[in-house]
Amino acid sequence: MKTVSILLGCIALAGCVQNLDDPSPESGAIAFREDCASCHGLDAMGSGSFGGALIITPPDLTRLSERHGGMYPAGYVMNVIDGYARGDHFSAAMPEFGAGDMGPTINVEQDGVGTPIPARLLALSLYLESIQR
To answer: Which of 28, 34, 61 is nearest to 46 (CA)?
Structure first.
């Protein structure tokens, strides 16, 4: 999983994901409600009931693009969710979702190079991309 995560930082998902029948923003919204909303809030703005009790306040996930120069950082987001790319500024309360089952892999292709990405991870990223302000 860690090797795949490294490659994700180089992949731009816009326009390169094939067959989104399963990993969609809608399925990502369900995964978000199940796995993330208690800390990040149903609105993804860091307002979750459990998040308020944490030492490090969960970030507003609707402003990821804004904080990254206007481009949605898909590789970064998936690395953080997976657990690979985390700095000291991350709360230890953030689970390392890559250590669990994130579903079957979907092949994401760019420039003829395919990278398998777990469907739930891809769906979460697509959902977060869809709610950027």
So the answer is: 61
For 28, the domain range is 2-130
Contact predicate 125/9, CB 8 Å: no
| Cβ contact 72:64 at 8 Å | yes
Distance CA 80, CA 130 (A): 18
Looking at residue 124, what is its pLDDT?
A: 97
Give CA–CA dist 96/84, Å, rounded: 8
Instruction: Count up the domains in the chain and report the number.
Output: 1
**Cα-flanking dihedrals φ and ψ of residue 97, to 5°?**
-65, -25
Question: pLDDT tens across 97-124, in order?
Answer: 998 999 999 999 988 999 999 999 999 9
User: Percent of the chain having pLDDT more than 70?
Assistant: 83
Kind and range of the H or E element at 38? helix 37-40
Contacts of 43 (CB under 8 A, 6+ apart): 62
User: Tens digits of per-residue pLDDT, 58-83?
Assistant: 999 999 999 999 999 999 999 999 98
Rounded Cα gap, residues 103 and 97, in angstroms:
11
